[in-house]
Amino acid sequence: MSDGWDGKSCSECGGxxxxxxxxxxxxxxxxxxxxxxxxxxxxxxxxxxxCENCGNLYTRVHPALEAWEVSKKCPSCGHVDPEVKxxxxxxxx
Length: 93
Prior knowledge:
Blueprint lengths: L17 E4 L2 H6 L1 H4 L3 E4 L5 E4 L6 E5 L20 H10 L2
Antiparallel strand pairs: 1-2, 2-3, 3-4
C-alpha cells in the first residue's frame, strides 16, 4: 500500500463508494478474510479488508497478493490485526 493512503478512499482509483462483498475464494485462501469483512470499491472493483477497530479500509486484497503489498497496520487508526500480521510473516518466507 502507498505510504500516504488514508484507508478511507480506494488506493487504486481514489473512489469513496464501497459495498460489502463476500468472496468465497479469498476466504479460503486468506485466513484473515474468513473472519473479516470485505468491501469493494464501486469505481474499480478493488477489494479491501475492513479494520475491525475503526471500520475503515485496512488493506487491499486480491488473488495475487504478496506480503509487501499488505498494510502492516490500519492507516486510519493504527490497529494491528494479528491475523494479517501472521499471514504476512508466513507468506514472506
